[in-house]
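User: Can you predict the 3D structure of ABC transporter permease? Sequence below.
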Amino acid sequence: MAESAVSGRSAAEGLRSYVRLAWTWCRAVAQYPVSLALLTAAQAAAMAAELAAVTFAFGHAGRMAGFGVSEAVLVYGLAALAFSLADFLLGSVEQLGEHIRKGSFDAMLIRPVSPLIQLATDEFSPRRLGKVVPSAAALCWALAVLDIDWTAQRVLMLPLLIASGTVICSSIWVIGACVQFFVIDAREVANSVTYGGQALTEYPLAVYGRAVATAVTFTVPLAFVSWQPALFLLGLPDPFGLPGWLRYAPPAVAALMWAAAAAVWRSGLRHYRSTGS
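Assistant: Sure. Here are the predicted structure tokens for ABC transporter permease:
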């Protein structure tokens, strides 16, 4: 009882610290409104280009691997929203290697706030909403035009699936960043998993084949970000014959991934021996 109360207070304090630090950066960025508007528009344009590529591919082909434009946009929306929210909340952790090189990570370690929270909020900017808003709009459009049987179960599961996808993406972001505790110049390797994973999950896994689908289900669980949630919402069987219960697994996978990310982060901190380690 006492331990759970302490844990709850720590989580609440961490959340308050996150909000305060993020708000401080937002106030600083707001001093340059034109720059903020242009950067936000650029982020939105990049997301629009990705969505255009998806709609062009499926619109030109008619149906691909059994998926039409609206179903493909559903998959894209689920993936893009999860990764955009993860980037919005924790994307700055990818700068860990730069902080280690500069020695600024040492300063984070002696402050009375979790270094992970400090990393996540470093240079926090609302410009990243330029990714979140178009992704959410694409998902809402797909949900509106698709003939989905909105049972109570699907209505209740939808926000949980989005939250689970965001946690999975955030966990992958943290794990990728932690590689830089051991290899300082490994940011590009981490980016290949995060941004590469986003590009992979924005298309139905049916277009890649069984080997890829199996790998991103049981190795790096990206299938639980958009593919399995899309199959659940559409009421479709898995084209590769994978178990039907997998579509209900995203919350459990998210919990396991977050626990893994926390363990990797703690391991990285134990390994860290100040600048140059």
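Confidence is low (pLDDT under 50) at residues 1-6. The first helix runs from residue 2 to 29.
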